[in-house]
Structure formats: C-alpha cells, structure tokens
Amino acid sequence: MREDMEYIGGVLDELEAIVQDASRVPMRKGRAVVDRADLLVMLDELRGSLPEELSDAEAIRRECAAVVASAEEEARRIVEDAHERAEAMVLDTELYRRSHRRAAETVDRAERYAREIQGGSEVYRDRVMGQLEGWFEDSLVSVGESRQELSTSSPALTRPERTPEPAPEEVPEEDEDRRNGQGWRASSA
After folding, report:
1. What helix, strand, coil percent values describe the chain, rounded to 5?
2. Where are the beta strands (DSSP E) in 103-150?
3. CB of 14 within 8 A of CB of 45?
C-alpha cells in the first residue's frame, strides 16, 4: 500500500509538471494549453494505480447508505405503530369514554333546544298570522259597512223620466240642458 501511495504521488507530481510547463494562453490569465494525450495517459496511470481499498470503500459506503435508509424506514414504521397503539389505548381509557359521553349529551341538549326554539317560532308565527287575519277581516267588514252606509245616505245618480217636449219658444233652461245630452242629474233616493 505504501508503494502504491508513492507511485500515486509520483504521477501527481508529473501532472503538476505538465500543467506548470504548459504554454499560457495570451490575454487569458490563469489559462494554459496542455497536451491532451499526455494528460489522458497520466490520468489512466493514476486511475490504475489507485489501491483496491478505494473501490472497496466505495462499496462499503453504498452498503452503509442502504443500511441507513432501511433503518430510517424501520424507525418510521415503529413510530407509526406506536402512534396507532397509543390511539387505541386512548380509546379504552375512562377519560375518553367520559368525554365522549359528555359530548353526546351536549349535542342532545343542543338538538332539544333547537326543537324548542323551532316550536316557539311556529307558535309565534301562527299567533302573528292569526292577528293579521283578524285585522284584515275587521278591515273588510269595516269597508263593507262603510260602503253600505255610503250607498244609503248619499244621493245616487238617476235618469229623470221623460216628459213631452214643449214648443221651442217655451223651452225652459233645464230642458235645454237635457236636449244637449246633459239630462242626467242627481236625485236623493
């Protein structure tokens, strides 16, 4: 392993020398032109000289990640199971049963109260409608009585009986109105 590390150090030194000796690109600070073929050969040598322990370490890292993911999934399942069991245990407690019973009683009281309010509103509605109906009936009776009173106490318009017409020179002013279509007059009945 020590020899491998020395070899890798030597290859890295050669790569550094290639980069240092590379010709610079004009007007581009920090840029250089490197022979691609030389660089690729050096990288292949470097890759080939890497110890097998690195590839073993990568395999171990992947296995470790899988174990961690599996453990996290198991932990999530355990927590869900614990929540379900805790919820089931709560349902069996006296406090839960008492609170559930109290909630049902509250709902029953609210429903009874709502029915009472509804019944009271129906009674009130019937009473108001009865009063309105009575007022309208009284008004209709009053209107009928007023109409009866008016028809018996006020003079009605009637047409007078026809009398023979006198000679034209003797026509009184009243008869002249009748010939002109104004023969209607009020009479008291």
Report:
1. 80, 5, 15
2. none
3. no
C-alpha 7/C-alpha 46 separation (Å) is 9
Q: Does a structural domain hold residue 125?
A: no
State the Cα–Cα distance between residues 112 and 169, nearest whole angstrom: 96
pLDDT in tens, 150-169: 888 765 544 455 555 555 55
What are the distances in angstroms from CA 53 to CA 45, 63, 92?
17, 15, 58
Query: Which range among 20-34, 61-75, 76-90 shows the weakest confidence by mean pLDDT?
Result: 20-34
Task: Please check whether residue 163 lies inside any domain of the structure.
Answer: no
Number of domains the chain contains: 1
The answer to whether 7 and 49 are in contact (CB under 8 A) is: yes
Question: What's the confidence (pLDDT) of residue 37?
Answer: 85
